[in-house]
Amino acid sequence: MIRVLLVDDQPLLRSGFRALLDLEDDIEVIAEGSDGKEGLNLAREHLPDIALIDIRMPVMDGIEATRRIAADPALAPVRVVILTNYGLDEYVFNALRAGAAGFLVKDVQPEDFLHAVRVAARGDALLAPSITRRLIDRYVAHPPGTGAGPGLEGLTNREREAVVLVARGLSNDEIAGHMVISPLTAKTHVNRAMAKLHARDRAQLVILAYESGLVTPRGR
């Protein structure tokens, strides 16, 4: 059973999401909050598998709530998915940097919403290659810092190559084709790189790759 925490300051939207999730046999909404501070406390109390958190709320916004969840070792199993009306704007970008596993636009189709919850619950990053490429575009506009990131020296050559390809927006299947290996081996390289770099998910891996200088945005 996938245990979900809903955090949104709009009761009507919360009730709509809950009604949709409650129809599924494998998903249970265990708690609801109306701001980031309440959501953080509920996450600590209930330890959900997924926390669906609105990005803009009173008292504490979704970015700060995400940052605090990601920084708390006791909440390591909690996967944060950001809810937004605006697509990949600066707020979402900052939430991904803070530790969110991905994001959903609130007008997403119901079947895509449910699929996203299940993807995040499996531990996969809710970040399609097309979104990764948009993250890269954001880095072109906002140049990353320089210098080696933590743990880069611990990567094998193949892991390093896999990280570069993830940061270029390739899926695991595309990485496998490029490296002439199986998709399972590609996924293993990516997962080992995430573990060594202490990246929570694929989104964090992309950000670390650019901020460390391992990858430079094209066009700069």
UniProtKB/TrEMBL annotation:
Keywords for this protein: DNA-binding, Phosphoprotein, Transcription, Transcription regulation
Domain HTH luxR-type: 148-213
PROSITE patterns reported in the protein's UniProt record: HTH_LUXR_2, RESPONSE_REGULATORY
Segments forming domain Response regulatory: 3-121
Keyword presence, Transcription regulation: yes
First and last residue of the signal peptide: none
PANTHER family: TRANSCRIPTIONAL REGULATORY PROTEIN NARL-RELATED (PTHR43214:SF24), TWO-COMPONENT RESPONSE REGULATOR (PTHR43214)
Protein name listed in UniProt: Response regulator transcription factor
